[in-house]
Specification:
99 residues; single chain; elongated; mainly alpha
């Protein structure tokens, strides 16, 4: 959660929605400070950070069981390409039209 909070703060700064609470060392803070920092964040930066953290987790898990099929870098890029495309409709299997 601390990594996600730091990422959300970085997103907020990047889009111009930063807060003075986000400056300085983000490595460690008390629970009360973390709560104050979370309250200063808008929904969008928090959502982007949560999606990014989940995307990295999914890329790692997917690659771990398919290491012989693709390089991690390729899986990582594919995951974020899907997100960048707005999670368009998934590709259909080759035989999906047959009955």
């Amino acid at each position: 959660m601390a990594d996600e909070l730091g990422l959300a703060e970085a997103v907020a700064e990047r889009i111009g929605a930063g807060s003075p609470l986000f400056s300085g060392d983000r490595a460690e803070c008390t629970a009360a400070e973390a709560e104050q920092r979370r309250r200063a964040l808008g929904l969008y930066p928090r959502l982007v950070a949560a999606v990014a953290v989940s995307a990295v987790r999914v890329a790692v898990e997917h690659w771990c069981v398919r290491q012989d099929e693709a390089a991690f870098e390729d899986v990582f890029r594919e995951v974020f390409d899907h997100l960048a495309a707005g999670l368009s409709e998934p590709p259909r299997p080759a035989d999906s039209g047959r009955r």
